[in-house]
């Protein structure tokens, strides 16, 4: 596969990017990520291709990094935890992501499920992400430039929905686009007090489960 091709040492890492990824995966496992499928996909996927070359030497640190337009590529541990939470109970077939950003989270999902739909409100970020998907040969991703709070009604329902920016509340338009037995994972709350929630339909309404404190950029309206 493209990912197993020998890649050149990433400048400044002082080791091959594969070695750097192996170390990152050891660290994620030590910090509680249990799902082998998630760890293996992240071990293969070159995160340095999702950020600016000037930052590539920091690609395998467990930290969020700037991607322009005031946005960030999420911290690897957060990507791993959200992915794990999304596929834990049942492997979804069709997943909607709100907030494409760099495309990294989307590319992780595309290695695990049949089809990923992703929506980004900032056109320039989306164009960069699409270029990366093409370069990596990821053919099971459909993307659109729109306000992702509205979901993607024409393709609903989705088996799972992941939101990678924090809203004040859960978006009802998104919950309405969940398939029966589907689950949504989203950070909710104001800066400094955000909680990662997993939501599923229960017999008497939505079941919310808190997965811990997180720190995300805000979910904004409109497009640019
Ligand atoms: N999943 C991304 C990744 O792996 O790089 C995370 C990117 S960042 C933490 C969140 C992204 O959500 C930003 O690119 C931001 O522009 C986008 N965003 C914020 N509000 C949005 C909205 N209403 N619809 C779509 N995207 C939105």
Automatic annotation (TrEMBL):
Main location: cytoplasm
Enzyme category, top tier: transferase
Protein name: Protein-L-isoaspartate O-methyltransferase
Pfam family of the protein (one): PCMT
Record-linked InterPro entries: PCMT, SAM-dependent_MTases_sf
Intracellular or extracellular location(s): Cytoplasm
PANTHER family assigned to the protein according to its UniProt record, in alphabetical order: PROTEIN-L-ISOASPARTATE O-METHYLTRANSFERASE (PTHR11579), PROTEIN-L-ISOASPARTATE(D-ASPARTATE) O-METHYLTRANSFERASE (PTHR11579:SF0)
Catalyzed chemical reaction(s): [protein]-L-isoaspartate + S-adenosyl-L-methionine = [protein]-L-isoaspartate alpha-methyl ester + S-adenosyl-L-homocysteine
Signal peptide: none
This protein's UniProt keywords: Cytoplasm, Methyltransferase, S-adenosyl-L-methionine, Transferase
SUPFAM superfamilies to which the protein is assigned, alphabetical: S-adenosyl-L-methionine-dependent methyltransferases
Organism taxonomic ancestry: Bacteria, Pseudomonadati, Pseudomonadota, Gammaproteobacteria, Lysobacterales
Family the UniProt entry places it in: Belongs to the methyltransferase superfamily. L-isoaspartyl/D-aspartyl protein methyltransferase family.
């Amino acid at each position: 596969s493209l990912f197993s091709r020998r890649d050149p040492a990433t400048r400044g890492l002082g080791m091959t990017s594969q070695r750097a990824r192996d170390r990152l995966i050891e660290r994620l496992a030590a910090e509680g990520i249990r799902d082998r499928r998630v760890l293996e996909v992240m071990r293969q996927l070159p995160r340095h291709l999702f950020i600016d070359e000037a930052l590539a030497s920091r690609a395998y640190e467990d930290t969020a990094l700037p991607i322009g337009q005031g946005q960030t590529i999420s911290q690897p541990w957060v990507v791993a935890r959200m992915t794990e939470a999304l596929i834990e109970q049942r492997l979804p077939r069709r997943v909607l992501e709100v907030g494409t950003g760099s495309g990294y989270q989307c590319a992780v999902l595309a290695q695990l499920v049949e089809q990923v739909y992703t929506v980004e409100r900032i056109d320039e970020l989306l164009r960069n992400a699409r270029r990366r998907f093409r370069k990596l040969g990821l053919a099971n991703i459909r993307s659109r430039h729109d306000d992702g709070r509205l979901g993607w009604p024409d393709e609903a329902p989705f088996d799972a929905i992941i939101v990678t920016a924090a809203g004040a509340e859960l978006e009802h338009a998104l919950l309405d686009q969940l398939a029966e037995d589907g689950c949504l994972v989203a950070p909710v709350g104001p800066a400094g007090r955000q909680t990662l929630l997993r939501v599923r339909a229960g017999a008497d309404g939505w079941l919310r489960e808190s997965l811990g404190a997180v720190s995300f950029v805000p979910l904004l309206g409109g497009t640019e």
